[in-house]
Amino acid sequence: MLHTLGSTRTAFSVIKPVSLLRPTGVARFISLKPDFSRFKKTEQPPGYIVGTVNDAYRIPLVTYYEGSYHWTYERAIAITMVPLMMTPFVAGVEYPMIDAVFSSLVLFHCHCGFKSCIIDYIPERVYGFWHRAATRLLTLGSFVSLYGVYLIETEGNGLFDLLKNIWMA
């Protein structure tokens, strides 16, 4: 039998107080209601003018992949692709190494171009999550395409032979 201590308290409530079973200061960690706040646009001041005229200019952090070197990489790749593209058609001989290098450079050139579009039209300071998602999706697509280039080079005769067959069809 259960002994009662007063009108509402039992012997078990003396042993295990109610405050230990349900702490009042602990927040609930699991919620069934989804939180979509991270998918929203970040509010920006008009014209993205932050601070006043008297505030010192903050120099942005240097990122070698996305800064001015990014433009240099793109130009170097574009200039390098011109002689590589003409070599098999002018020489009449298809070299597998030139074909593989050209295919990889075309892929990297496309990756850089789409990355520039993402940086320009989906800026991270405004879109946050969507910028990172688009960048990661582009990187995933580039790696899948690199695997496709590998398959074209190993199982087929390469990109130049594929283009020649399409052109002659």
Summarize the entry for a quick read.
With 169 residues, this protein is mainly alpha-helical. The protein is 59% helix and 2% strand. It has a domain at 68-168: 3 helical TM bundles of succinate and fumarate reductases, CATH 1.20.1300.10.
Pick out its properties.
169 residues; mainly alpha; 3 helical TM bundles of succinate and fumarate reductases; two-stranded antiparallel ribbon; 2 strands; 59% helix; elongated
How does this structure look, described?
With 169 residues, the chain is an all-alpha fold. The protein has a domain at 68-168: 3 helical TM bundles of succinate and fumarate reductases. The protein is built from seven helices and two strands; from the N terminus they run ββααααααα. It has a two-stranded antiparallel ribbon with strand order 1-2. A hairpin with a 3-residue loop joins strand 1 and strand 2. Helix 3 (68-91) packs antiparallel against helix 4 (96-121) and helix 4 (96-121) runs antiparallel to helix 6 (129-155). The radius of gyration is 31 Å and the shape is elongated. The mean pLDDT is 81. Keywords: Iron, Membrane, Metal-binding, Mitochondrion, Mitochondrion inner membrane, Oxidoreductase, Transit peptide, Transmembrane, Transmembrane helix, Transport.
CATH topology of the domain at 68-168: 3 helical TM bundles of succinate and fumarate reductases
CATH homologous group name of the domain at 68-168: Fumarate reductase/succinate dehydrogenase, transmembrane subunit
Helical stretch count? 7
Mean pLDDT: 81
Q: What separation lies between the terminal Cα atoms?
A: 93 Å
Q: How big a fraction of the residues is strand?
A: under 5%
Query: What's the number of extended β-strand segments?
Result: 2
What is the highest CATH level, the class of the domain at 68-168?
A: Mainly Alpha
Spatial shape = elongated
* SSE series: EEHHHHHHH
Helical coverage, percent range: 55-70%
Secondary structure class reads mainly alpha
User: What would CATH call the architecture of the domain at 68-168?
Assistant: Up-down Bundle
Widest β-sheet, arrangement of strands:
1-2
- Low-confidence segments, given as residue ranges, are none
Radius of gyration: 31 Å
Main sheet characteristics: 2 strands, antiparallel
InterPro entries: CybS, SQR/QFR_C/D
Membrane topology: Multi-pass membrane protein
Binding site for heme b: 109
Organism: Scheffersomyces stipitis (strain ATCC 58785 / CBS 6054 / NBRC 10063 / NRRL Y-11545) (Yeast)
